[in-house]
Amino acid sequence: MNREWDKASIQSSPEVYHAIAAMNEARPVLCLDVHGDEALPYNFIAGAEGIPGYTDKQAKDLKDFLSAYKIASPDFQTDKGYALSKPGKANLSMCTNWTAHEYQCLAMTLEMPFKDNANLPDPEFGWSPDRSARLGGAVLDAMLAVIDQL
């Protein structure tokens, strides 16, 4: 589903099609697409920096969100993550990029590790449902910190 956003149809990707229809009714100011990364053992955000027309406002909103998330969660970090797309070259078939481009909003992908967070390892439980829930609670704090500027 995460490669269907620029071509969603009721036949090929009804989930995305209906999500877009709902987003058209209530235009988003923030979108968080949550994933798990099999390779990188960190919690990080992949932003939409490479979309065509990426704005200074989108950059500031992302920067402020990342700062707030780092304060809200010891499990979140900004040093490790995916390489940024070159300006204008982001893959618009992906939810984050398509949404940021279509609605000029703050759109991000939260990536979580499958096994453990290398910056704050837990040898007994690794990356667990409880830690995911705490990270999810902290993301709400970060959203609250920036919502008025969106």
SSE arrangement, N to C: HEEHHEH
Rg (C-alpha, Å): 16 Å
At the first level of CATH, the class is Alpha Beta
Count every helix, treating DSSP H or I runs of 4 or more residues as helices: 4
Number of strands: 3
User: What's the structural domain tally?
Assistant: 1
The CATH topology assignment is Aminopeptidase
The major β-sheet equals: 3 strands, mixed
- Let me know the average pLDDT: 97
Contiguous uncertain segments of 5+ residues:
none
CATH architecture: 3-Layer(aba) Sandwich
Task: Please estimate the helix content.
Answer: 25-40%
Kindly estimate the percentage of residues that lie in beta strands according to DSSP.
Answer: 5-15%
Question: Could you name the CATH homologous superfamily?
Answer: Zn peptidases
Shape: globular
Question: Could you give a quick summary of the protein structure above?
Answer:
This protein is α+β, with helices and mostly antiparallel strands.
